[in-house]
Amino acid sequence: MSHNSAAVLLDMPLLAPDLSQVHFSAELTGRASGPAHVHEARLAAADVIQLDGISVTSIARTACDVARFGSKHQAVNILDVALRTGVLYEVAGRARRHHGIRTLRAALPLADARSESVGKSYSRSVITELVGIPAPDLQVAIALADGSQVRGDFGWRDRSGRIRVIGEFDGRFKYRHDTFRSGMAPEEIVYAEKLREDAIRASGVIVVRWTWDDLRHPERLRAKLLAALRMAKLIAA
């Protein structure tokens, strides 16, 4: 099994995946028929692992295959996942003549193991395409008035290196995940997040939040970021 199907078995988060077919890779034949898609591909021994008795392409090979057959945003996401969990670049180097290699090559320099979720990977990929928006730092630390520190998903600094704007992807799954992890009720999670954001703003840092809908309408995200960056005097008004 390979491509999106292998990613599902390997528990690799996917961005807007097409799961209408089950994907396999074979060295001697390739065909697409009904619910099955067999890709003709030459696989190195390291490209195949055994998972509960099933032959599956490795994390690195799966990431490269998914990247080649998807959009740039999907490619950045799956490459981020691979960087967090395994070796990637050696497999990508062997794929130089494969179908979709341009998408893989375009996404590979953007991959970053610090990206913690599909939404954050998608956000970073979209931000790289927004005209006039400088590239942010990831997982930035903000010092609060009480001496403690909190972390932001994305950060923009002034010339002295001080964080002036942070960006936060606000997906619904985040609150479900935090509720499960902490045992707190959803309303307690939301209230704690409000207190955290109030403390960040009190330290002089501007906070920008966005959702999946903003990512699907990048002009909205661009307007939010432009307003914040101009308010912080990081870009010209």
Offer a few descriptive terms.
2 domains; three-stranded mixed β-sheet; 43% helix; 237 residues; 9 strands; four-stranded mixed β-sheet; elongated; AbiEi antitoxin C-terminal domain-containing protein; alpha/beta
Structure explained in plain terms:
This is AbiEi antitoxin C-terminal domain-containing protein. The protein is an alpha/beta fold and 237 residues long. The protein has two domains: 111 residues, no CATH class; 108 residues, no CATH class. It is built from ten helices and nine strands. The strands form three sheets. The protein has a four-stranded mixed beta sheet with strand order 6-7-8-9, with helices on both faces. A three-stranded mixed beta sheet has the order 1-3-2. A two-stranded antiparallel ribbon has the order 4-5. Helix 2 packs antiparallel against helix 3 and helix 3 packs across helix 6. The longest helix is centred in the C-terminal third of the chain and has 17 residues. It is elongated. The model has no long low-confidence stretch (mean pLDDT 90).
